[in-house]
Amino acid sequence: MDKRTFIKLTGLAGAGVVAVPLVSSLIGCGTSPSSTPTGPNPGGVFSLPELGFDHAALEPAIDSQTMKVHHGKHHAGYVRKLNAALEGHPMAGSALESLLANIQPNDTALRNNGGGHFNHAMFWKVIAPATSERDASPNGPLERRINASFGSLEALKNTLAQAGASQFGSGWVWLVQDVNQPDQLFVTSTANQDNPLMSGIVPPAAQGRPLLGIDVWEHAYYLNYQNRRTDYLAALIDQINWSAVSLLMA
């Protein structure tokens, strides 16, 4: 693990959190192709995670055809191109957090496809259909942190919706945990496939541990909503699986 990623991840441990797991390991991103046959992950490749639910499970909020294309075509494409970009690359074999933290702005193949893989793997987790009341609303430490940071769940939902509506062009909206103050959560947005782990690209105010990512690329909603992004956001935010979000916290 590189020094920058070590500092970011162990910052939480210094605040009293021990053995912080990598987010990518929690959302099923797979491993990186190794730069050598005997490297850290010999023979490994990043892999497309299973969706985990039926394509139609989120209807009418998200239609079945959109889910099929989004997961099976768009996300699969990011994974395939990421693995290709890492062939012979100095960062081959790195954990995904390390790779993302060290991507430079001009390394467009890793930036777009590494971000695209991570972002979508998180997306499927946090919109998985609720199977209990605990999934449908925050509780425990997550609820306390939301209330302390935003005042209420409703205020957080409004902040997410506003950030998504105001994001110009393609991008993502994030709920992020501050690595230096773990009880502090904030909302930010990024362009294209950038995310809060990309410390070499996104500004410091947008960096942290991502807990929730909302896709505002048109491919996420256009078949059903056309240009009505605000309608998509309103429907999607009500589908958030808060248990899944809670599991990503440090």
Task: Summarize the structure in short.
45% of the residues lie in helices and 8% in strands.
Along the chain, the helix and strand elements come as HHHHHHHHEEEHHH
Gyration radius, in Å: 17 Å
Content-based structural category: mainly alpha
* Broad shape: globular
Count the strands? Answer: 3
Into how many domains do the coordinates divide? 2
- The appropriate CATH architecture of the largest domain is Orthogonal Bundle
- How is the CATH topology of the largest domain named? Helix Hairpins
Report helical residue fraction: 40-55%
Estimated share of beta-strand residues: 5-15%
Give a written overview of the molecule.
With 250 residues, the protein is mainly α. The chain folds into two domains: 3-126, Fe,Mn superoxide dismutase (SOD) domain (Helix Hairpins), CATH 1.10.287; 133-247, 3-Layer(bab) Sandwich (minor pseudopilin epsh fold), CATH 3.55.40. It is built from eleven helices and three strands. The protein has a three-stranded antiparallel sheet. β1 and β2 (185-191) form a beta hairpin. It starts with a helix and ends with a helix.
